[in-house]
Amino acid sequence: MTPLRLVFMGTPDFAVPSLRALADAGHEVVCVYSQPPRPAGRGQQVQKSPVHRFAEERGIPVRTPKSLRNAEAQAEFAELKADAAVVAAYGLILPQPILDAPRLGCLNVHGSLLPRWRGAAPIQRAILAGDAETGITIMQMDIGLDTGAMLLKDAVPITAETTASSLHDALADMGARLIVEALDGLAAGRLTAEPQPEAGVTYAAKLTREDGRLDWTRDAAFVERQVRALTPWPGCWFDAPTPTGGVERMKVLKAEPAPNARKATPGTLLDERLTVACADGAVRLTLVQRPGKAAVDGAALLRGFALPVGTRLGDAACSAGN
Questions:
Q1: Which bin fits 99, alpha (ψ -120 to 50), beta or left (φ > 0)?
Q2: CA distances from 195 to 104, 118, 230 (A)
Q3: Distances (CA, A) of 274 to 181, 261, 269, 303, 316
């Protein structure tokens, strides 16, 4: 292995295993770039990012610019004289002067099998779409959105038990292994970047809270994937009518297919185990949470919350029996 002089650019938990692996492999990480500290958690206290905290634990200098588009930030980056920059879920666009500064360029640890799922939320979108597999692509970055040439790939299956959390952790570990391998190959001249094919491009749009609204007008398989893909962020939910004519928002943490459930209008509560009709089939909501309450199974929720069988669950217009 040839020890390289590296800059690492990343922010969330996903990026930490890659930074750890590079440091442990003997590379000199001369500086870490991360998003600035921001309010987070229930108390909204200003917190450093996971990558920022890890870098400080290892004694690596950290920079947190709000932008890399100004000449001063670009000059400071170039002065690091890095052999390569490694980017993993950083959160800032890299302008061309940044991409051009390192001798071997900027390498990205991307959580999909490119060109499928370019963009912000590849892990969640792969599960939501029902993909059979996904993986990690180590990419030589260019100015486009995840359009750069590919250096290494590896795949992992997506099963009926795969969740966003489990897939996130598996891909974070895979990315750590592959980025060390890719840098070794690139430095030794064994790896040649391969352009992405034009066919098969899809975009993983950024997630919003509205993406978590359970859509009973979709088939049951999709709704069940929604819960696996969008927990913990942005979280899945539905609105339920209260006895006083109001609406209470229920968070859904786990769900499962409900085979042999009777057909009904999508959104209809079918039984006392919190089984809900979808456009095709039904899902049973097995772990749910009322606002400010502990998470419980569906049957326990119905014992403490008056929702008669036949209630329509949905948006603010939902009401019992119609």
A1: alpha
A2: 17, 14, 31
A3: 48, 12, 6, 10, 19
Instruction: Write out pLDDT tens, residues 187-231.
Output: 999 999 999 999 999 999 999 999 999 999 999 999 999 999 999
Helix (H, G, I), strand (E, B) or coil at 309: coil
Q: Pick from 122, 182, 180, 186: which is nearest to 156 by CA? A: 122
Cβ 157 vs Cβ 132: under 8 Å: yes
Question: Residue 169's CB: how many other CB atoms inside 10 A?
Answer: 14
Complete DSSP assignment for 114-147: TTTTEES-HHHHHHHTT-SEEEEEEEE--SSSS-
For residue 90, how many other CB atoms are within 10 A of its CB?
23
Partners of residue 118 on adjacent β-strands: 203
How many Å separate Cα 231 from the centre of its chain?
10
The strand ranges marked E within 16-59 are: 28-33, 38-40, 45-47
| DSSP per position, 188-208 | HT----BPPPSTT--EEPPP-
Radius of gyration in angstroms for the set of CA atoms belonging to the chain, rounded to a whole number: 23
- Position 137: which residue type? T
Spatial distance between the Cα atoms of 200 and 22, rounded to a whole number of angstroms: 31
- pTM > 0.85: yes or no: yes
What are the structure tokens assigned to 243, written together? Answer: 């006895």
pLDDT tens for each residue of 44-73 = 889 999 999 999 999 999 999 999 999 999
CB 175 within 8 A of CB 155: no
Check: CB of residue 184 under 8 Å from CB of residue 2. Answer: yes
Tokens of 273: 């185990």
